[in-house]
Amino acid sequence: MNQVSSSLPGPNDIYREVLPNGIIVLARSNFSSPSVMVSGYFNAGALFDAEEKLGLANFVISALMRGTKKRTFDEIYNALESVGASLGFNIGVHKSGFHGRSLSEDLPLLLDLLSEALTTPIFPKNEIEKLRAQLLTGLAIRAEDTGDMASMVFDKILFKDHPYGRPEDGYPETIQNIRRNDLANFHHEHYGPRSMVIAIVGAVKPEDAVKQVKRALGSWQAKSQKQTPELPPLKTLKKTVSKHHRIAGKSQSDLIIGTNGPMRRDPEFMSASIGNNILGQFGMMGRIGDVVREKSGLAYYAYSSLSAGLGPGSWDVSAGVNPQNVKKTSDLILDELKRFIQDGVTADELADTKANFIGRLPLSLESNGGVANALLNIERHNLGWDYYHRYESLVNEVTAEGVLNTARKFIDPNKLVIAVAGP
Amino acid sequence: MKDTITQTTLSNGLKVLLKEVHTAPIISSWLWYRVGSRDEVQGRTGVSHWVEHMQFKGTEQFPANMLDKAISREGGSWNASTSLDSTRYYETMPADKIDLALRLEADRMVNSQFNPNEVASERTVIISEREGSENEPLFLLGEAVQQTAFRVHPYHHEVIGDKADLHSMTRDDLYHHYRAFYVPNNVVMAVAGDFDTGSMLARIRELFEPIPAGSDLARLARPEPPQNGEVRLSVEGPGETAYVQVAYHFPSASHPDFFPLIVLDSLLAGSSGLSNKTSRLYRAVVDKEYAVDVSGGAEATIDPFLYRITLVIHPQRRADEVLAVLDTEIRRIQDHLVLKGEIARAIKQARAVFAYRIENITNQAFWLGYAEMFANYEWFETYLDKLSKVTAKDIQRVANQYLKPQNRVTGTYVPAERRGNYESG
Known about the structure:
The structure holds two protein chains of two kinds. Chain A is α+β, with helices and mostly antiparallel strands. Chain A has two domains: 204 residues, Cytochrome Bc1 Complex, Chain A, domain 1, CATH 3.30.830; 182 residues, 2-Layer Sandwich (Cytochrome Bc1 Complex, Chain A, domain 1). Helix content of chain A is 45%, strand content 18%. Chain A contains 17 helices and eleven strands. In chain A, the strands form two sheets. Chain A has a six-stranded mixed sheet, with helices on both faces. In chain A, strands 7-11-8-10-9 form a five-stranded mixed sheet, with helices on both faces. In chain A, a hairpin with a 5-residue loop joins strand 1 and strand 2. The longest helix of chain A has 19 residues. By secondary structure, chain B is α+β, with helices and mostly antiparallel strands. Chain B folds into two domains: 203 residues, 2-Layer Sandwich (Cytochrome Bc1 Complex, Chain A, domain 1), CATH 3.30.830; 194 residues, Cytochrome Bc1 Complex, Chain A, domain 1 (2-Layer Sandwich). Chain B is built from 17 helices and eleven strands. Chain B has a six-stranded mixed sheet, sandwiched between helices. The radius of gyration of chain B is 23 Å and the shape is globular. The N and C termini of chain B lie far apart (51 Å). At the A-B interface, helix 3, strand 5, helix 5, helix 11 and strand 9 of A face helix 2, helix 4 and helix 12 of B.
């Protein structure tokens, strides 16, 4: 093995253990700094939210640290902040996540707090009302954010009548509908050790990391934990749908043009990923950046992105432009999409992107956070523990023809969503 | 925090700092130019940032398109940014590819072309960058507060510059700025990662030492006179959320009072990089529902700049109510000595944040060069020691000296949908 591939996580240095209650622990050591990262996911995403209480899963996750059986809100944060540790939770559609870090000497405390937040939150009434005001302010700020609103409009059209089309943080009226009991019930029905994965990376031996997780979370049982519902079928677009969401008084509009993309486990994922890099990421944002930013000077940012997860993903191009230039920019992007599915990519472009994908790997896996994400990604999508050692050949297997076929399979220039938010 | 660092200055004045780190096969190289918005006069505000953009537009040896391709092909990451005092460029590369970054930086220190067509297209890109920021209420408020706090000193304007200047600056304005400030005697080079110091230094000498030193730089010397009395302002704009920003004039990073003020900030508003839910201000204004968020912070700068506290006002409250609570908290810290335990806690937080920072090599190279911009590397190395020496009396003294209303600008963002409330309130 050369120097680079031996620094990548692999079967020889990733430790995995399944606890008796179902929690999967992943661990990898890194003693270069005296710190440790704890990261993971569990079920209880926004998929479970009823329409009229959209935002409930997010409300619950935001309330986990507002008070537990053992500690008040202030006591929880006092314990964390006194040692310079941090712990936070984030909502997803399928899975919800947590991220924490501390000096390695404080790992037991960090895991205690994680355990208390997950297993014994008490949702104190006064804290819930404070949180509600904060969530509502967040939604008021979102309503003024051209990027957030363009993205919300885009998802709503692309994923019509599908859980992916709904904002996980809900709407002001659905947040107002949520009662304290709803939070407690949601926690009772959806939180539990089944499907929970926790990765610990940093200055701790893997076996010690597992021992610590066992101590903190090994006895957690939740018989009431419900199964995740099936996703409804996706309604495909019949024609291009455009929508302009007006936000008065802004200097810039955000524009998103796109369509559905593959799932992470689809065989086309790697060719789509490479195609996307050429389209709107490589160097200074790929072909899109070249046309919109470099040649036309229309935008500070213009790029494409591919979001591929457990279910159908999206593949889109975003740009922030002066409100007067929306049409011009949108035409340029449409031309690029057409060119992309007509002519595909050149051999040079393909070689550049492959080199980039392979070369950047050590950088993306350098920090504890990067490694933790990589371990969780392998577990979630069943990529195999030698994934990063096989990565180079997976990238090299992609051909220009494969990229073209994938692009044609997903992108139809006559069936796009064009979402704009701004004046 | 003592590391083995090699420091040397080349014959042309370029200062080099090297730090071997062998935790991953990666090297990060940073060039820090001592030029930023502090070096800009009216009519050419934003010129440093625009020059930074032009540095990605190519030289004869590395034409624009080839530049980013070359770095990206090798799996590198690179970027640049401009601040009040400095402009910095970095490349983080697989260790065996770093030579490309070194050659590129040596080349664009002198050979950037500033092609007029590229200048024209970058003009609208930067205007677009500014318009994106103008979408944010906190940018509009922060800009108004800053320009009010500095009437004389060039910290007056935002780094991105005023729109009028972005429209009127010429290619020659940019090029002159580049030629004047992009000289080796105005640069600190910081490299950290998986290399051997001897051969790295030899290669740096080979590439950079032939670049001739520039003449002594003419710096603006326009110190800000003391502010005599509180200034209040308001900015109106769309939305329904109100914000308040309170900015106190704050000493430079090399001033001894900087350190007690950093401890004071972490007691009031939390340590940077961590949550702040047990800070005094969070407990007083967020927990008591006057605001939904509070943050505080100061940049380490060459000349005195600002310590800013920013509050997102609770929908049921008015700005003046929040300010009254803020003032009560500040009076409390002025009138009563803080507990020793509180200081110890702030030190432990700083120690943890330090440990997180050295997790990746890009950050290690960043910190190697950063402190050189306003002090020297020793400033960074002894940072935790200096914080540890801060006493409760120091904190009380600086709280009284700096956090007084006469020394501040208070700005309110008044959202269109709540304007009526504010007029009557």
